[in-house]
Amino acid sequence: MQQRNAQPTKVNEAPVTAEEPVVSTHQTARLAQEPAGDFRIVIVGGGAGGLELATKLGERLGRRGLARIILVDANPTHLWKPLLHEVAAGTLNSYQDELGYLGHAKHHGYRFQFGRMEGLDRARRQIILAAMTDDKGEEVVGRRRLDYDLLVLAVGSISNDFGTPGVREHARFLDSRLEAEILHRDLLILLAGRVDGATPDAGPDQDSQTAPGGIPSIGVAIVGGGATGVELAAELHQAMEDLSRYAAPVKAGTLQITVLEAADRILSPLPERLAFNVSEALRHLNIAVLTKAKVASMDAESVHLADGRTIPAKIKVWAAGIKAPAFLREIDGLESHRNGQLLVRSTLQTTRDDAIFAFGDCAWCPQSPGSDLPVPARAQAAHQEAELLAKSLVRHVEALHACRQPPPLPTYSYSDFGSLISLSRYTAAGTLMGGVFRKSYLIEGWFARLAYISLYRMHQMALHGIWRTLILILTNRLQRMTQPSLKMH
């Protein structure tokens, strides 16, 4: 799973080889025939990396009339994906932290197209957007096509259930804000029976566990001991503590939370000592951590492990792996990895089409030119790649408008600046600066918590600039002073 991580950027400006062309005759001919500003760069995916890239290109090319930058996303708003576990727990009101693409586009020189990509026509240089339906399933907008000169795919990833029986039917995922809000709604519905002294009419097959004070408990099983699973567990515990201030019968122990990890320890990317400390912190919060616990199947009431154990759980969350969206697999002849990721070179160009780029979780990119290891699916990698692509495409378009041969595209080399894990407001832990000083430094406690919070602030600064980010921080502080700490609707 994704680790929260530091985001400084370092790219290798070494030129690409002659086998990696950087401009096509199609682009040169079209630019010569059309007025300035009609050169189209389409970015599909408004996640952290895609939105940062659209912002930079809009400011450097769109505002100057050198190109038309178009961002395509299936949602009208953006929410930083590492915050979804807070939305699910209710400790973050997504409406307060969301960013509207249309308004942001107006202020940063790009355009926004609302729609979900479902196909690609490389011969015509067009992407195909799916039809849009209303809540009754009736089509209100038909399929559309969108022209491009350069295409950037940054559609992220989705949960990989590895075909485990019952997961799709009975588990919740945290791939989007909508899914996080559905999980939050499920929790509120189950907790409703534990407020004001109400108790469920327990049948013979129902979980009979009780929380402190004799209140029936709710089993919560989180499959996956990566950053998402661990942080969600801690955030749910924090939410119960907050809720107890508003509804006295609900205690922190009302949720019987279990984290299930198939490996021999949680947080495998972190040093073993830090992972052990995080495990102990979770157990201190009465959160059970089961390792070597491979899930065999799920049903409505339980999670069944491969070793025969059964974990009672009304709420089941799958956070055990990721894969690229299914529509990307070999889309219109592009080469893909076995997990669905598009194969790209170190220039972030796809291996079979130099006019199509891909980065972030949806791309299989070597960690450095010639490496057999892929860039990990981390927020810092997407940030670094967006920085590189912004520089690459700005130089490319500027050269085309000056009637010069574009310079070779720079190549990307991944730099690991560490990983951070936050256990809500309790504590945090991680490593820092491994890619800068060739040495990793272990941090824990308040300093790690401060470093973790700074990651989101850095993302906001990339989108809004320093002064607007400072205003957003102040606004957030004022909201916390005047509003409940927990979203209860």
Would you kindly provide a written description of the structure presented here, covering whatever features stand out?
The chain is α/β, with parallel strands linked by helices and 489 residues long. The chain contains 13 helices and 27 strands. The strands form nine sheets. The chain has a six-stranded mixed sheet with strand order 5-2-1-11-23-22. A four-stranded parallel sheet has the order 15-14-13-19. Helix 2 (48-62) packs parallel to helix 10 (379-401). The radius of gyration is 24 Å and the shape is globular. The two termini are 29 Å apart. Residues 6-21 have low confidence and may be disordered.
Biggest sheet record:
6 strands, mixed
Strand content: 15-25%
Poorly predicted runs of 5 or more residues? 6-21
Helix content: 25-40%
> How confident overall, as mean pLDDT?
87
Globular, elongated, flat, extended or rod-shaped: what is the shape? Answer: globular
- Tally the helices: 13
Structural class: alpha/beta
- The neighbouring-strand order within the major sheet is 5-2-1-11-23-22
Say how many strands there are.
27
Distance between the termini: 29 Å
Q: What's the Cα radius of gyration?
A: 24 Å
Task: Provide a compact summary of the structure.
It contains 13 helices and 27 strands. The protein is an alpha/beta fold and 489 residues long.
Q: What brief labels describe this structure?
A:
32% helix; 4-stranded parallel beta sheet; globular; alpha/beta; 6-stranded mixed beta sheet; 489 residues; single chain
